[in-house]
Write a structure and sequence with these properties.
about 40% helix, seven-stranded mixed beta sheet, globular, 2-enoyl-CoA Hydratase, Chain A, domain 1
């Protein structure tokens, strides 16, 4: 029973797509990848070289230099929230990445969440959506019990836009509540104060377990300029709240260090004192192994055209260790694939949409389109989701979904109730869930497959993701349905009215298509990060390993007592 019956899946690329098709798909992906890399570089530059030079003139490192120095040598930074506020104009100014870097990083062999104010963007000020971005990173740390490091260099709220970031349930003050929840749940928090730490920025480090300050750093409720205006006192912010005050008098900080480099070394030393990762224990001696088929082939397997079908098992074959997979409940709900594979040597559950035409179990000899949720498929993935929760397996949702089945028959089959059951299951799961929007993420199907409103720890999009209630053309037809016949043709005979309706429908379609751009979702925190398709395996390795790093905060069963085995026996009728 302890045996997990994974089997080889997938075929060599040449047997799946020929060279002409591969070249065509790669040509379609290339400009989207180029755009992503260009925009990443644009965001990482902050406000540019001039502002980086200003930081260096103060004998300080820029925030991204600090982050780079903090991570383990040879490891990669996995940034989230890169495109928050991307392209948003604040009276002639932009706030790249909302003025804060949030990322998963390995430090002394432990995965950590790092939250670092970008000191090249308005001296690390908090813009609209900066608090929400910080809180999102804190929530990821809380869910995975990851050590959380704050690299504080913050001039407080960007005051011209204060009304959009001060008040409300997720306003700046909610950061401190998240600090408190992390502390209450035993998640280590370590703060390094590198410079300005004013008002709200002054509160952020204080609940941390350890607080370091450089000689250039200060923490104050109100800076020198405000005190000069309010009390006519001529003193500096360092006089008010520098390391001399907070390390030796108030006790609000623990240690003072001379400079940025020393502080970063101290932060690494503190992380080294924490327990090591339990991931090797849960691997049980199994070493991480790459897929038999290279993840670099994924762009050739996933068509840019969302109307074009592909073999979803070939996607899994390029994500799972050794391209081995155990499909659970394979004979029911064929429009859905669910099962178990290893990622980085650790077990994870997968749910994804099968594409193309599938046999219709309700009508012998007929077929129906995949990428849609029908009754059996919904019941299947609800059961599988509950099994992953019971067994403690992290659950990865790979979405390419057009929505739920619709029509009189679907309603008679009770799809609303089956869908509610799935939503309940995903809403109450405690096992880590991660969602990837491969292509389409449409309508209630996006919700049901653990879309962001249903609280996955991380949701990733790709450059070809399309997140919306419905497609632009469909929505345009729905909006002007009263003007159309049963074949969706405009019924008026008036040429002017026909032209006007055509123009307005085209405008609606164009606007909806523009809103489906993944950068729109990323800009407004409707997805956590946009990643290249050939990066998916790297991201899944990190997400799954982080799920197993902490120990004792959630149930993780050994494979001998998995609920999965019971499902397999019941479905097969006890056959070997």
């Amino acid at each position: 029973m302890a045996h997990v019956p994974v089997v080889p899946i997938g075929k060599p690329r040449e047997a799946v797509v020929d060279q002409a098709e591969l070249d065509r798909e790669l040509a379609g992906h290339a400009p989207l990848v180029s755009k992503l890399e260009s925009r990443r570089a644009e965001v990482q530059a902050g406000w540019g070289d001039k502002y980086a030079e200003r930081v260096h003139e103060k004998d300080k490192l820029t925030t991204r230099e600090r982050v780079e120095r903090l991570k383990d040598e040879g490891s990669r930074i996995f940034e989230v929230g890169t495109f928050v506020n991307y392209g948003v104009d604040f009276n002639g100014l932009e706030s790249p990445a909302a003025g804060v870097v949030t990322a998963f990083m390995q430090i002394e062999g432990r995965w950590c969440v790092v939250i670092a104010n970008d000191n090249t963007v308005a001296s690390g000020a908090w813009w609209p959506q900066t608090p929400e971005k910080i809180q999102r990173a804190q929530e990821m740390a809380r869910r995975l019990r990851l050590p959380t490091l704050y690299l504080v260099d913050c001039s407080g709220l960007y005051l011209p836009e204060q009304s959009k970031s001060f008040a409300g349930a997720t306003g700046a003050g909610h950061i401190f509540r998240m600090n408190s929840l992390l502390s209450a749940e035993g998640v280590p928090q370590i703060a390094g104060v590198f410079g300005d730490c004013i008002a709200g920025g002054g509160y952020m480090p204080l609940i941390s377990d350890r607080v370091y300050m450089t000689e250039q750093a200060y923490m104050v409720i109100a800076g020198a300029a405000l005190i000069k205006g309010a009390k006519s006192q001529h003193i500096t912010s360092l006089d008010i709240g520098g390391p001399e005050v907070h390390v030796h008098q108030s006790g609000c900080a623990d240690e003072r260090v001379p400079d940025d480099v020393t502080l970063i070394d101290c932060l690494r030393r503190e992380v080294a004192r924490l327990p090591t990762s339990s991931a090797p224990f849960y691997r049980g001696g199994v070493e991480p192994m790459p897929p038999r088929f290279s993840p670099a082939e994924l762009p050739g397997m996933l068509p840019v055209d969302h109307r074009q079908a592909y073999d979803a098992m070939e996607i899994l074959a390029r994500l799972c260790d050794q391209s081995l997979f155990w499909e659970v409940l394979p004979s029911v709900g064929r429009e859905m694939i669910c099962g178990v594979g290893r990622v980085a040597g650790l077990y994870a559950g997968f749910v994804l949409n099968r594409q193309g035409l599938i046999d219709d179990p309700e009508a012998e000899g007929e077929q129906r389109p995949g990428g849609i949720l029908y009754r059996q498929g919904i019941a299947k993935i609800s059961t599988f989701s509950r099994a992953c929760e019971s067994d403690g397996l992290p659950l990865i949702w790979l979405q390419d979904i057009s929505g739920f089945d619709i029509g009189a028959e679907a309603e008679r089959h009770g799809l609303l109730a089956y869908g509610s059951n799935l939503i309940y299951t995903n809403s109450t799961n405690q096992t880590p869930m991660f969602t990837v929007l491969l292509r389409k993420a449409s309508g209630a199907g996006y919700y049901a497959m653990a879309g962001l409103p249903y609280d996955p720890v991380v949701q990733l999009s790709t450059p070809i993701s399309r997140l919306s209630v419905m497609e632009g053309r469909t929505l345009a037809i729905a909006s002007y349905n009263s003007k159309l016949d049963d074949n969706f043709e405009i019924v008026t005979t008036d040429p002017k009215e026909r032209t006007r309706i055509e123009q307005r429908m085209a405008e609606v379609e164009a606007r909806i298509e523009a809103d489906m751009d993944p950068y729109v979702a990323a800009r407004q925190l409707d997805t956590d990060e946009i990643v290249r398709i050939d990066e998916l395996r790297d991201w899944l390795e990190v997400l799954v390993e982080m799920s197993y790093q902490g120990i004792g905060y959630r149930r993780v069963k050994n494979p001998r007592i998995w609920t999965m085995h019971d499902l397999d026996v019941l479905l097969s009728g006890g056959r070997a």
